[in-house]
């Protein structure tokens, strides 16, 4: 089965004109992200790292500048996104070739967008300083993944998250006017897209603040889904199923472990060695090898590792879990009652 899936997962050739339109769309998204980040999240950028480094220098110098924590969070998560995306997309896959791994990286970045939207709507678009740090981290990670994925396309002067290099290439092309028509058109399109995105993001933030972050999310979804059609239904189903299995089996393992601890604390009179210890331990032992393999953690040689792109679902789910843990820690610090309330959802009378 895996061999058949691997043969179906090949790079998809995207026409240069289509590729450029997709890059323009992602650049519109980036422009909106930076505009909203700067205006609503403490004057810090989510993908313009040159500006953040300059802000950090001003901060060190004692001049007026955005908060140091916000700057460092944005830079660190952006770098983390670049690292994860680079691990997924191999730079050697060909100049200009939009591979399905690029699409996969963009798809995983949507997890960070979803986390951002969830928290943004939960705070009614008015996040506190601490929440703003989480939001910056979410978007920083997403933009880092996008930047690294686009970089592997090797399209000169196009990064979708920065304009300095694009301006350099465009100005340089003016010296060789007749031979650079197509490249000038592409670079100009990127600059215009960045302007349009920043304008749209700013207008939405002023006129419809709560819905402003929806714009970059919708654009990224559209690009990802459009390109994701290159995966066959079988591969798409296998990827979704792998991600769900990783989550559900992890829950099963944790519930077995929790069962042992819960009944052990209730005293020996309520503790049944078979039901509350042996069966949970056997359940954990039966599923741990397969779960570790699905999650991409090679421990047992007798379990066949998953082939790409199924093997990418482990890191993707892990990233989602990490963001969830960060948000849980935030809730523990700001509203611990919401965490304890979750534990009461499924209570139904006395436990036997």
Structure, explained:
It is a single chain. With 352 residues, the protein is mainly α. It folds into 2 domains: 13-231, Growth Hormone, Chain: A (Up-down Bundle); 234-342, no CATH class. It has helices spanning 2-8, 16-40, 49-61, 68-88, 100-122, 129-151, 164-173, 181-207, 214-228, 233-265, 273-294, 313-334, 336-342. α4 runs antiparallel to α5 (100-122), α7 (164-173) runs antiparallel to α8 and α10 crosses α12 (313-334). The longest helix has 33 residues, at 233-265. The chain starts with a helix and ends in a 10-residue tail after the last helix. The model is unreliable at 1-13 (pLDDT under 50).
N→C terminal distance: 44 Å
What is the 3D shape?
Answer: globular
Overall mean pLDDT stands at 80
Order of helices and strands: HHHHHHHHHHHHH
> How many strand segments?
0
What is the gist of this entry?
It is built from 13 helices and no strands.
Helix-strand blueprint:
Blueprint: H1 2-8, H2 16-40, H3 49-61, H4 68-88, H5 100-122, H6 129-151, H7 164-173, H8 181-207, H9 214-228, H10 233-265, H11 273-294, H12 313-334, H13 336-342
Helix pairs in contact: 2-6, 2-8, 2-9, 3-4, 4-5, 4-6, 5-6, 5-9, 5-12, 6-12, 7-8, 10-11, 10-12, 12-13
Which short descriptors sum up this protein?
single chain, mainly alpha, Growth Hormone, Chain: A
